[in-house]
Amino acid sequence: MNITNLTPRQQLHAGRMPLRMVNLYSGLTLYALAEALIIRANLGVDPWGVFHLGLAAMANLSVGTIVILVGAVVLLGWIPLRQWPGLGTVSNAIWIGLAMDMFLSVIPVMHHLPAQIAMLIAAVVLCGLAGALYIGSHFGPGPRDGLMTGIHLRTGLSIRAVRTTLELSVLGIGWMLGGPVGVGTVVYALLIGPMTQFFFRYVTVKLPERAPAAAVSG
What we know:
globular; 0% strand
């Protein structure tokens, strides 16, 4: 493809594609690292993490395998919502689980409280940066975020209500399955939003806005 034959807007999109790809996959990798750290901190994990770990213990499968399988099932829920996955959606569903298992194989469990707290804080900060990177790459939401926005669009319920309902549901089911709920669960819930918002301003890839549609006279 000859980039000189593209419109200025298309050229800008093409020129930013490498940065978007780097942001996407570095964000997904950092997210997997953050999830591995919060698990190894041993102070409780995020709501979806409680669900994944509870299922992993019940099914005797690795956490990463469960993350991939749950992502695939959640994507099936997109069908009645008429949601369409993007590159970021598919990459999220597969790569995070694979990378999590890799990181969990080399990161030890922490048992001393100062080290646990430091690992927990590092995990939340990294998770905020990771979310800003992969969401700001504009390749589509992850399976779980897409389910949330799809329900919001189809039902008219607020994003906050849908997210709270989904996360409380998976948290409750995960807890009943034996997933670890603790102070880390609360810390994550309180800080992940502000952390992600803080990093958005620095790592979001700016894309050109669509030109307004021409008015039709007649």
